[in-house]
Write a structure and sequence with these properties.
Length: about 210
């Protein structure tokens, strides 16, 4: 097969922007975590041929594959998995994506940058986490900080652009006081890379309640 070396740099750039090159090799060196296709999640929304699915990870059973022994919610950080499938004819920019966790009482919590999670202080375990109570902790920059685990940043949503027919996934994090099955995830800031028009914002209920 003849390789078009003039096209290769462009393909490489698009793949890196979409988060499809490099990440897979690095992740395999650790422990594998593979999100399902967006269509297979219970909670999702489609607009302009772009589908976004979301699932909050709360129990130890849910977080085991993604975070190993760490359950971020036990330290006051709620991980929400986001899966975006682009079935539109144009690439979609997601580098300015904004995520908000909206509670039924109209409390709205903006996502924490993944790189800042390990620096949170004064975090206490939510009282409604299933399983044994760990108690309050003081979270700092110490290497022993459980939230400094590589999975927190390594599993974060980091794609910049999603080509047509492709998908991207990763976690967004919220320092939410409580979680709720009646909460929703609001996603905005997605842009059609060809027209530069922003897509309508998404509001994905995190349960059927």
């Amino acid at each position: 097969m003849r390789i078009n070396w003039l096209r290769w740099p462009l393909l490489l750039f698009v793949s890196i922007a979409a988060g499809t090159v490099g990440w897979g090799f690095w992740a395999d060196a650790k422990t594998a975590f593979q999100a399902k296709p967006a269509a297979e999640y219970a909670h999702k929304q489609t607009s302009e041929k772009v589908t976004i699915a979301a699932e909050q990870f709360i129990t130890d059973e849910q977080t085991k594959d993604a975070f190993g022994k760490l359950n971020p919610w036990r330290y006051g950080v709620l991980p929400v998995l986001v899966v975006i499938q682009n079935d539109s004819p144009n690439a979609v920019r997601v580098d300015r994506m904004k995520a908000v966790y909206a509670l039924p009482d109209r409390t709205r919590v903006e996502a924490i940058p993944a790189g800042e999670v390990k620096y949170l202080r004064g975090v206490k375990q939510p009282t409604n986490v299933p399983g044994p109570v760990v108690g309050g902790i003081h979270v700092g920059k110490s290497p022993k900080n459980p939230l400094a685990a590589w999975e927190v940043e390594g599993r974060a949503f980091s794609a910049k652009m999603i080509p047509p027919g492709q998908s991207a996934s990763g976690f967004v994090y919220f320092q939410a006081p409580v979680n709720s099955e009646a909460a929703s995830l609001e996603i905005s800031g997605l842009v059609n890379a060809v027209t530069s028009n922003e897509l309508f914002y998404f509001e994905i209920p995190l349960s059927g309640k």
